[in-house]
Write the structure tokens for this entry.
Amino acid sequence: MAYVEGRVVHDADSHLMELGDCLDAYFDPRFRAAYHALPYYRHKIGDNRWAEKARERQDDAEFRAGADDNILLRKNYEALGAFRREDRPRTVDLLGFASQLVFTTFCLGNFGLDDGDDMGLCYAAAQAHNRMMTDFCSVDRRLLATAYVPLADFERARVAAAEAIQLGAKALMIPSKCPRGHSPSHTAFDPVWAMAQEAGIPILFHVGGEEKLNPAYFENGMPRVKDFHGGEENFTSVSFMPIPHAVMQTLAAMIIDGVMDRFPRLKFGAIELGGSWVPSWMRFMDSAHQAFYKNEERLHRLSAPPSEIVRRQVRVTPYPHEDTGWIIANAGDEICLFSSDFPHVEGGRNPLKRFGDSLANTPQAAQARFYCDNFIDLMGEGLAPDLRRPKHLIAA
């Protein structure tokens, strides 16, 4: 029996849990040694015994025999399909999702290379990631690969986007934070947006590409707080707070500078960045539109108030611990998407229940948009027509 039954649910956020050597086969040989020398790489890989243990665990016949019964209980590297692509179709069957957007875990943030001076290595890492993701997802059409396009260099970004689309990526992911020296709304990126719009695939932001909390906030005279993984590298209640700040600013710039009007069929998704910020952000942009309208010609050229452009072109995934019903009521039915965050711990063991409890007083039509229709709208041609509302998933 699948986790989801009797309705169509698309998963806007799932992950590949890569092992340390995940990119080696896909990396341009000219840059592989420099990649292996990165402090971030060396820190993450360590002695690599953790990867050997993960492989041994997934090879164990007794452990694998319990995979079906523990599909949402086993997390990270213990989850079925976490890093072996041949297992992932069975995972989707057991979950009962119509499709899954698949994101990296290991490569989020592109190893900090976007802010460095070696653009060859920066774009080689993104290229290796994109080759890996499209290869992993090639085993099943329900797996929708995301490809990363750094915005550090105009021409290299164009080339990276073109190759990602050619590889079969179903979405292009860009950083939430502003690149060095230019805005993400710069007109030199119009070829990237044009290619995505022509291919009918969205532009996505994902947690990991945002501006991080100033580390001075951790120096509060008290013992260091552990995160829910037990370490100090992930999110705590304070470092959680700035997660949406960068994407709020970047999306605002892209709306106000006319990117979304120049490409009105292009959709944007903010994934695993929460959603409680959206209603007030929409109102704040409308306030800016009204306050500065007299003096800014670019505001005259907008096709609609910013909040209406958001409803037309921006989609977000609330966290399961947020009040999704409240977000929908205050932002509009068009914006929110369901996500599981599989197989990450943060997604929880029963996301349908957590979202369902929040949506108890939300009209059924709005719920259908949350679980299915808004995702179809976001993905466009990236989601094949026969996968949008599969008849075998619809209740008789």
Notes: The chain has one domain: 10-207+243-388.
